[in-house]
Write a structure and sequence with these properties.
Elements (H helix, E strand, L loop, with lengths): L5 H15 L27 E7 L2 E5 L7 E3 L12 H5 L8 E2 L7 E5 L5 E5 L2 E2 L18 E2 L2 E5 L23
Parallel strand pairs: 1-4
Antiparallel strand pairs: 1-2, 3-9, 5-6, 6-7, 8-9
């Protein structure tokens, strides 16, 4: 009996898995009325930090308007998100500069790979590949990669978890 059907079946399964890991969409409005020109995953190379209102909460964003996150298992001197975790949650490169509305303390840490990461009020900063446009906060409240992720509020306190359906892929341990 031929085993040719295994390759197409494997590709179909891989496609379904990839689709299941994606976001089901945003429940928040864009941070500004300008049409975003960005497509794909958020870049983490911008060092200017700004603020925006996302789902009624004033949060920190990178230069492109993407929401920034902090990881509960991190400390003020060490990131606990490395390897595949840092692929899903790209670290914000340090040092960072404060834009309008950013009032907290900005510092840096040295990551395990020797790169510099921006830190805000003692929290190493990340973007989330599940946010595909400015003004989204799909990573807020997710329990992934060994801990809970929070959007960074201007005060530095954890914001309430955003309302997401169970189909958002948030339960997967990246």
């Amino acid at each position: 009996m031929s085993k040719r059907w295994l390759a197409p079946a494997g590709l179909a399964v891989a496609g379904l898995i990839a689709a299941g890991c994606g976001s089901s969409g945003s429940t928040s409005a864009p941070a500004s009325s300008a049409s975003p020109t960005h497509t794909g995953a958020p870049a983490s190379t911008g060092s200017a930090l700004n603020t925006a209102s996302v789902s009624g909460t004033t949060v920190l964003t990178n230069a492109k308007g993407f929401t920034l996150y902090w990881f509960a298992p991190d400390t003020s001197t060490k990131s606990n998100c490395n390897g595949s975790c840092a692929t899903i949650w790209p670290p914000v490169k340090g040092p960072a500069t404060a834009g309008s509305g950013v009032t907290g303390k900005l510092t840096t840490i040295t990551r395990s790979d020797g790169s510099m990461q921006a830190v805000y009020n003692g929290h190493p900063l990340y973007t989330y590949t599940g946010d595909t446009a400015p003004g989204q906060n799909n990573g807020n409240g997710l329990n992934a990669s060994g801990g809970v992720w929070h959007e960074v509020t201007v005060s530095g306190a954890a914001a309430p978890a955003s309302s997401q359906s169970s189909s958002s892929g948030g339960g997967y341990g990246y």
